[in-house]
Prior knowledge:
This protein has helices at 14-33, 38-45, 49-62, 71-87, 103-119, 134-146, 188-195, 198-206, 225-228, 234-242, 274-279, 293-302, 312-320, and strands at residues 2-4, 65-67, 91-95, 127-130, 151-155, 174-177, 212-216, 218-219, 245-249, 252-255, 283-286, 307-311. By secondary structure, the protein is an alpha/beta fold.
Amino acid sequence: MFNIQQYNSTGVNKANMDIEEELTVKAAWLYFLAKKTQAEISGILGISRMKVMRLLERAKQTGIIKITMREDNVRRMKLENQIIEKYNLKDSFIIPVSSGAVITEINNAVADAAAMYVGSRILPDSFINIGYGDTMGKTLNNLAKNVKNPISCISLTGGVSIYLPNTQSSIFNARLYLIPAPLLVSTNEVFHAIIAEDSVKEIMRMVSLASFTIIGIGALNDGATILKTGALSKNDFLFLKMQGVVGDILCHFFDKYGKTVASPFEDRLITTPLSVLKSLSNVIGVAAGTDKRDAIRGALALGYIDILITDEDTAQWLIENKTD
């Protein structure tokens, strides 16, 4: 928010100073409030563009222009910087969540935020890797709805339905490159047969071409996509919890310290290996909510996430509860 205040100076050659003062106020008004360009202001005031630049700088230095931010925005900016420093990230994006928001609203909010974050940074005809999960499906649909230029999205796992346009998507400006397979297959032999297919190998080779990789962070709760789709059962979850598992990335499971835990279905999952994920740049982890806090912390400890998008309360918890 910009506040323009009349600033009076005293001293030698007061008339000239008053003229300079008036020009400074006008230039500041035109630039910050009327949204004129420096070139337009130059024409309006009849002065050079270099003079406009000097006046705008003077407006900031003398207090004619005071730039302030809302307190809640300042708080989130501080949280973002703390998260970046504490977990050695490239960036973070913290969203506000209203008091009493249910998990569906929170997931929708972070999916919107992830689509906004990536959409504002990608170039035309960009390739983007998309991970598994309900939040990832929403992110993809939001992104494909809002981008001006077509994007190319590469699935990082099997489970085709997650990546398809939803019934609310009247616009879907994306080309999909999907692994034509379920997430979990019946035997290790079927697994090897599928990944040996040329069409599957071609998609897996495309993963390295992406400018951004967006992944969800799963938790072992009743809302987990991998449970709701029937890929794993509640007994499978119970077994994993007994081994100390708190969450997963691309269906690779880990404990609260970020240590991977081998699962009995590892050799039947059609998914991108963690070694490949580690080699990628701009990996964005997207997750929020109280029930995912341990999973998010464990995922950050894994060290494969470059950018975290989450909610404000979870970010504060992560600052106060890092596992060393």
